[in-house]
Design a protein that fits this description.
Chain lengths: ~350, ~80
């Protein structure tokens, strides 16, 4: 076929390899930065069946990096908008859009219809769900994740290699690790990293080259430094996922991480000179913390009193119950002020703690 | 022993640098982490795994190499 001529004339691929691509079924989780990048080359390469799952809609702030979309896609579901664009790119393949959330209830059924799973999601709940569902359905997982200017790529659950839990055993506490919408990302970064994911998919299907299994590839767009770190397979992590198979369908998939913020318990706070303790309650609220230095900025005035907040060092923010302090951290994060933590406890508990003589700090 | 320590992602933001060279006498990775916690107190709030000579290791491991990396998970896509 003329379309795939430049593949077919490569002796490593040939017509036989191109037929393998045509017969392959690849499922891409997320049509965001990574997904848009990976999907373009998967479609262009002639992957016979492409599944795309994304429940989200296109927003104008996505266009800086999610290059399957244009102004006319704003407000449309991402999976459907991606399918529309990719059908124009290659009308000889079959593209299936799933405008839904990936959950514990649908993951196993969806994965079993495909050969390879590509993880381009933007939260840990989906990443661990995809990892576990790949173990339960025996599918290779082509993983990538990005942060600001850095990317990670690996292939999990492939040829007796490790899975994501062998690298990071369990999901970080909610809000501990921000995603792109919270901290920003260099637009071209998912382009580079998503292309590396497609490269791994093609090697797996074509059975050529060295697949990135048992290794984590790390990329830094600013320094152009790359590292390949070896990951050891941990049998226990496979066993613990397999043991939970019966209950997998019943597990509640919790996507609330986007709204969570960094938080900390009193006993883990180091009350040193670099710490700024901020009380976001209104002036009349009791008890007042007078024992140690506290900056008072009611939540309602936070934006107008930013000059009171230290730009460097850790900020721990508290209120009466933890609701306003959470909003304060969210607000400060969106204003680009980092190292802010919500205190898990309220003002009364903080006061008690400070007045406890045998505390450890 | 002189150790070269590389910091990735959010860890490099806490340490304000991508690399450290330190003189360290302890025996295990966990002792090294304790030492780094006292050098960078905000590191306590971070989630990371440790690689030694380009291989992911548990924190109970003995220090046998001189290149250490602190690797956080990334969520973004």
């Amino acid at each position: 076929m003329e379309r795939y001529n430049r593949h077919i004339i490569l002796s490593e691929i040939g017509q036989k390899g191109q037929d393998k691509l045509s017969n392959a079924k690849v499922f891409v989780i997320g049509a965001g930065g990574l997904g848009c990048s990976a999907l373009q080359y998967l479609a262009a390469a002639g992957i016979g069946t492409l599944g795309i799952i994304d429940f989200d809609v296109v927003e104008v702030s996505n266009l800086q990096r999610q290059i399957l979309f244009g102004s006319s896609s704003i407000g449309q579901n991402k999976a459907i908008a991606a399918k529309k664009r990719l059908e124009d790119l290659n009308d000889s393949i079959s593209i299936i859009a799933y405008p839904i959330k990936l959950t514990h209830q649908n993951a196993l059924d969806l994965f079993s219809q495909y050969d390879i799973i590509v993880d381009g999601s933007d939260n840990f709940e989906t990443r661990y769900l995809a990892n576990d569902a790949c173990i339960l359905t025996s599918k290779p997982l082509v993983f990538a994740a990005i942060y600001k200017f850095e990317g990670q790529v690996s292939v999990f659950n492939y040829n007796a290699g490790p899975n994501y839990r062998c690298l990071f055993p369990s999901s970080p506490k909610k809000g501990m690790v921000p995603n792109c919408s919270e901290v920003g990302v260099l637009g071209v970064l998912p382009g580079i990293i998503g292309s590396l994911q497609t490269n791994e998919v093609l090697k797996i299907i074509l059975e050529i080259g060295d697949v990135l299994s048992g290794k984590l590839f790390c990329y830094n767009a600013l320094s152009l430094q790359t590292s390949i770190l070896k990951i050891i397979r941990n049998e226990t992590s496979f066993q613990s996922v397999l043991e939970r198979k019966k209950d997998f369908y019943k597990t509640q998939t919790n996507f609330s991480c986007d709204t969570e913020v960094n938080s900390v318990s009193i006993k883990n706070v180091s009350f040193d000179k670099t710490l700024q303790l901020i009380d976001v309650r209104e002036p009349h609220e009791q008890p007042k913390i007078t024992e140690i230095e506290v900056t008072y900025i009611p939540l309602s005035q936070l934006e107008s009193q930013l000059h009171k907040i230290n730009r460097v060092g850790t900020k721990v923010i508290f209120c009466q119950s933890g609701i306003r302090s959470k909003r304060a951290v969210q607000l400060l994060n969106t204003l680009g002020i980092v190292n802010c933590y919500r205190l898990n406890e309220g003002a009364s508990e903080l006061k008690n703690y400070i007045n406890t003589p045998n505390k450890t700090h | 022993m002189q150790l070269r320590i590389k910091y990735f992602g959010q860890i490099a933001e806490v340490t304000q640098k991508e690399e450290d060279t330190i003189e360290f006498q302890g025996a295990s990775i966990s002792e090294l982490i304790e030492a780094l916690y006292s050098k960078y107190s905000a590191l306590k709030y971070e989630n990371f795994q440790v690689a030694q000579n380009q291989e992911l290791v548990s924190i109970e491991s003995k220090i046998t190499g001189n290149e250490i990396a602190l690797l956080p998970p990334f969520a973004g896509g």
